[in-house]
Design a protein that fits this description.
The protein is an alpha/beta fold. The structure holds adenosine-5'-triphosphate (ATP) and magnesium ion. Magnesium ion (MG) binds next to helix 1.
């Protein structure tokens, strides 16, 4: 068995420019197995763009991304998904005309039922696989506390329930690394608490590794082992919540410098 003690994610000198805007500028960081790493920073700091480039949604202007030691720079989102990288979106990306259950089923990488030839050649195999997928999707919805909306169209779910469904999609993938873009955005405090509990549970009891962007500092402090502060496309600081609190540049970045 291959023993790989290196980081799950290794981002080296990543850059992304849009015209004259350097959205991500020479960003390097690592995420180790079992960690929850937080990415914070003011609006427009380049957090989502960093995720987009890592997850293959955007091509980098420079730099490299390694997943479990393999160079996966600019691989497609789908290829990365199959290699174990799953992500959620700042704005939920559900299929509104499909039920909650179906939304999770289509996220499963063992979903062979979509393949018409598979279906024609091996109906029994497909049915067995489909049954597995249905069961996994049902269990995931139960874990998320969404059992009562299993057959509800995703478009009819509340904003918070859609956020949970986003998290559920990543759980269908058996992902090695999950990138969460603002899991708490637009979510009420009770549900926020629940989402935090779920992320902790997935991390502690199921070995999931997370990298998460969040503006809610309480959630960040509660969940993250390490925090990266992005400002104007660059890493300003990497450390603990105390390091973040005690750094005057971080405060300036959020609220503007007092001597500006
Ligand atoms: N597709 C794009 N085309 C042009 N500019 C873009 C594009 N996507 C992002 N940007 C710019 O890149 C910069 C970083 O944006 P990004 O969305 O990554 O910030 P963010 O840190 O996620 O902010 P927020 O906290 O508001 O979500 C911003 O100046 C933004 O306007
Ligand atoms: Mg963003």
């Amino acid at each position: 068995m291959k023993i790989n003690s290196g980081p799950i994610l290794d981002v080296r000198n990543l850059g992304k420019t849009y015209g004259g805007v350097r959205a991500v500028n020479d960003v390097s960081f690592q995420v180790n197995k079992g960690e929850i790493v937080g990415i914070i920073g003011p609006n427009g700091a380049g957090k989502t763009t960093t995720f987009n480039v890592i997850a293959g949604a955007e091509k980098p202007s420079g730099g490299e991304v390694f997943l479990e030691g393999a160079n996966v720079t600019a691989r497609s989102t789908e290829q990365l998904y199959h290699l174990g990288l799953a992500r959620t979106f700042q704005l939920s990306h559900e299929y509104p005309k499909m039920t909650a259950l179906e939304n999770l089923m289509v996220a499963s990488k063992s979903q062979h039922g979509e393949n018409i030839f598979m279906n024609w050649l091996y109906p029994k195999l497909v049915n067995e696989r489909e049954a597995d997928v249905v069961q996994k999707a049902s269990e995931t919805l139960e874990f998320l506390g969404l059992k009562h909306v299993v057959h509800e169209l995703a478009g009819n779910l509340s904003g918070g329930q859609k956020k949970l469904l986003e998290l559920g999609r990543t759980m269908m993938a058996d992902a090695k690394l999950i990138l969460l873009d603002e899991p708490g955005a637009g979510v009420n405090p009770t549900l926020m608490q629940k989402i935090g509990d779920m992320i902790t549970d997935l991390n502690e009891n199921r070995g999931y590794t997370f990298c998460l962007i969040e503006h809610d500092m309480q959630l960040i402090e509660r969940l993250c082992h390490r925090i990266i502060v992005l400002v104007e496309g660059r890493i300003l600081l990497e450390g603990s919540m105390d390091d973040v609190r005690n750094n005057s540049q971080v405060v300036d970045a959020y609220f503007g410098s007092s001597d500006a």
